[in-house]
């Protein structure tokens, strides 16, 4: 199932079906990031990062950025479009592309181990959880928790359908699912972003979930 989904994503990059890519830095990232209070020069994990310009924004603020992306076409495009010349190395199932404070591990996130990353100080997820099929979402959250045993804050951005009949990713269902998946471990604050009509189709809403660990820090 997951392997099939991987093939679909690889084909989407090959066929340039990448409408999810935003040419500009995400404005909810810019607005909400400081609320996570990530330490200066902290290490930020960006799962399923595509060729997002958000990586550049985080690196420009002094964070060490680790993106995870399945498609080598996406990773190549990220560095090429930003005129960066990365160094490439190999580690287990992953090819690591590195330039300055940005490292992208190219491979399947489900094969990633804590030892690939070291300590993580925060996670930025834009359309990563919700890019996965429903059964893989539980697996994804388990993976995040294993990569981040000390439970650091997460900023999670989604685009959800307002109309409950249109897709399985309606706002009400996604909300419930995110609470079910994360609330045993995190306090969740939801900020509703902008709802806007898409031409000839029902509206979508961009939402912001800020997550902080529930238990008092012992680390
Ligand atoms: C909806 S896109 C979001 C990309 C990025 N976060 C952004 O904001 O543009 C999801 C990305 O996840 C990647 N992906 C899907 N499954 C993956 C997996 N198992 N491991 C790593 N990356 C994966 C896809 O190739 C795609 O680039």
UniProtKB/TrEMBL annotation:
It comes from the Bacteria. CDD domains: AdoMet_MTases. Its main location: cytoplasm. Its EC number is 2.1.1.67. Keywords: Cytoplasm, Methyltransferase, S-adenosyl-L-methionine, Transferase. It catalyses: S-adenosyl-L-methionine + a thiopurine = S-adenosyl-L-homocysteine + a thiopurine S-methylether. Pfam families: TPMT. It is found in: Cytoplasm. It is an enzyme of class 2 (transferase). Belongs to the class I-like SAM-binding methyltransferase superfamily. TPMT family. This is thiopurine S-methyltransferase.
């Amino acid at each position: 199932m997951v392997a099939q989904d991987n093939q679909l994503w690889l084909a989407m990059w090959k066929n340039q079906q990448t409408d999810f890519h935003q040419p500009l830095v995400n404005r909810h990232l810019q607005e909400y990031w400081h609320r996570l209070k990530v330490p200066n020069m902290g290490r930020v994990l960006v799962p399923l990062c595509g060729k997002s310009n958000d990586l550049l924004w985080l690196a420009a603020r002094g964070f060490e950025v680790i993106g995870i992306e399945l498609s080598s076409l996406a990773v190549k495009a990220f560095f090429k479009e930003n005129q960066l010349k990365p160094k490439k190395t190999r580690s287990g199932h992953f090819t690591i592309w590195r330039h300055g404070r940005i490292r992208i591990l190219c491979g399947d996130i489900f094969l990633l181990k804590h030892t690939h990353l070291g300590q993580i100080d925060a996670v930025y997820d834009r359309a990563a959880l919700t890019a996965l099929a429903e059964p893989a979402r539980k697996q994804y959250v388990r993976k995040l928790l294993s990569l981040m045993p000390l439970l650091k804050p997460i900023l999670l951005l989604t685009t959800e359908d307002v109309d409950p009949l249109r897709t399985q990713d309606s706002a009400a269902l996604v909300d419930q699912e995110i609470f079910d998946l994360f609330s045993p471990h995190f306090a969740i604050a939801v900020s509703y972003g902008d709802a806007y009509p898409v031409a000839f189709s029902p509206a979508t809403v961009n939402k912001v979930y800020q997550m902080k660990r529930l238990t008092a820090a012992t680390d």
